[in-house]
Amino acid sequence: MAQSGDATNAPSMDAIPILKWSNLNYDVKVKGGTRRILHNISGSIYPGELVAIMGSSGAGKTTLLNVLAGRVQGGRLEGEIKFLGATRNPHTFKRMLAYVEQDDLMHSALTVKETLLTSAQLRLSNNVYSPEDKQERVSTVMRQLRLLHIKDSRIGGGGKRGVSGGERKRVSIGAELVIDPGILVLDEPSSGLDSSSAEMVIELTKEMSRQRNLCTLVTIHQPSAEMVARFDKVILLAQGKLVYMGPTTQAVPHFEKLGYPPTHSNPANFFIDLMTIDFSSTEATLKSEERVQLLVDAFAEFQQRGGNLQLPTRKSFEEASIHSSEDCVPAQGQENNASSSTSIAALNDACSGKGSQAGNVETNLAHCGLNAGDITQEEANLFQSEPPPMNSWVSEAWILLKRDWILTIRNRSFVNGLIVQAVVMMLFNGFVFFQLDNNQASVQNRIGTLFTLTLVSTFPVAIPLMTVIMSGRDVLHRERSGGMYRMTTYFVARALSFYPVVYIPYIIMFAGIYFIANLQYDVAKFFISLLVYAVLLFCSLGFAFLMAMIVRQMDVAHTITPVCLSVFMLFAGNLSNANAITPVLRWIKYVCIFYYSYSGLVQNEFNGLEFDCSTNESSCYSSGEDVIDAYGLDEIPIWGCVVINFALGLGFYIIAYLSLRWVAKPRFLWL
Ligand SMILES: Nc1ncnc2c1ncn2[C@@H]1O[C@H](COP(=O)(O)OP(=O)(O)OP(=O)(O)O)[C@@H](O)[C@H]1O
Questions:
Q1: What stretches pass through the bilayer (predicted)?
Q2: In CATH terms, is domain 19-305 a member of 3.40.50.300?
Q3: What is the pTM assigned to this prediction?
Q4: CA dihedral sign of residues 121, 126, 131, 132
Q5: Confidence class of residue 389 from pLDDT cuts 50, 70 and 90?
Q6: Is the ipTM above a cut-off of 0.90?
């Protein structure tokens, strides 16, 4: 097997790194000034390499990874990053990059296969891959990541049983690998895993890198000696400064030459000891800071001189991949070729919108009109054009709708909660206001029925719905950062997936109350009430989306939402006379969904009703119109209530969407 650290393997002239970064500096604002998190970091990574970023806690590993992945937010970033020798286009780069976050953010209710298939369906172009190709791709990834035996298991998490931690991590990796990326980035893939699961993840990652000619960057805290041996290169960071970058096998000799012989059998422990600042005493701190600075200066000088730590060529990796693992590496020119061709197909998609049958980086660059090692600015500009969306709007929305529908119906507590609420409220309301007749007491009871109907269709609908939407935001953020789909398709699919589970039980509840309470038995009146009520449900869903999108924290949303709904309740026209509200606050009723629904329902019910005034009561409503007038609910006709409420509901959705699209949009710094 060719040694990745073989000093005789000088890079060939045509070898261009997949990613090359120079003089990266990253500053963040802190109290009283700025703090430099990354100091003048340079390096490069080639296809097929597995590279670990190591350092003690707070060394800047995740920050460097995020900078290279184009996922850093806030602060100031300087330096240069080249992707295949050209300036990166964020849209194209996103398609080539697979980013596996430290927390495995996936939908817990989906199975392993569903998770991978949805990723493939959304992220692979229908023009290039047939549905069978996508299925095949998913099966291949599951086989390679040893996931076939759990393909129908739910992911689980958040208190629900599911696959193990190591399996979850492998699913996260698989969901990214189905697109055949050019670069795989993993943040602390071993964190939270036992040593054998962690080793398996790293081992499989190495296999994948070799098989797919993938360049893989991993941050890792303190790996075992076996794990360290699997990395082709290491990037060692101390206090945001580069202490070493080069072949793993040459790291220990490098430090030995500087006068630091190894003190541990595990090189990772040795590196961490060298790079950690000892805060136990002032003297120890100064001494360790001095040591780190010396290592940093030595490596900077070494880099300036050109260094004699030779990076391995791509050829050496191809050789290594043939010899490294007989059972997982396919015959040269077969799967290896196929996987690189598909991996580069994504690049070609980005360049030309077509798939490629090419088998290596050079050929695929040529497909994009680029020549390896000889990229002019004009050629590099090919990467600047924004690639077309992977699939049509309708196809994307349909995939998301299917996924969201599965998520919704598998959320048993949510669905059952809505059904139980609807049934209980129907029985209580119906029988408290049972078979109303036309006496004076029925006036109050009819008013009570309609007002309660308004309340029970907003509070218990909007609050759980908002919780469900918010609990999926982490996954949304991850998928959005990876450019998996448009925000419009996400929004429409998410909303549509909720309608049946809200509308079916609540329309049944409405009809039940209507007939049990003996509201006006008139077909036209029933359907008009139903229309007013259906629009109210539309508004409740819209309000839930609004709160879920504009409020960042779940607990804040749980405080604000009931308060807003309670204010709406005050202005509905039941607890206060709609015409007698203080003029300064009267406008609130015009943005109050309760007011229009309640007013519409009351007008529809009371119009045409006659009441019995024979009981000698001091005040008597002889007709329904008197009641409407007394409550001040005749200002806007029923059709007006329906139209205005529909417009308000639509407004909620639009503001929620705009908030999602622009306000909650992650703003990554880009080089
Ligand atoms: N946006 C930011 N604002 C303020 N400080 C930041 C910011 N981003 C990173 N830092 C600081 O930069 C340092 C490096 O952070 P980073 O997360 O990259 O470290 P790390 O090496 O990955 O650590 P760990 O292994 O503990 O995850 C830390 O001290 C962190 O607090």
A1: 413-435, 447-470, 491-517, 523-549, 556-575, 636-660
A2: yes
A3: 0.80
A4: negative
A5: low
A6: yes
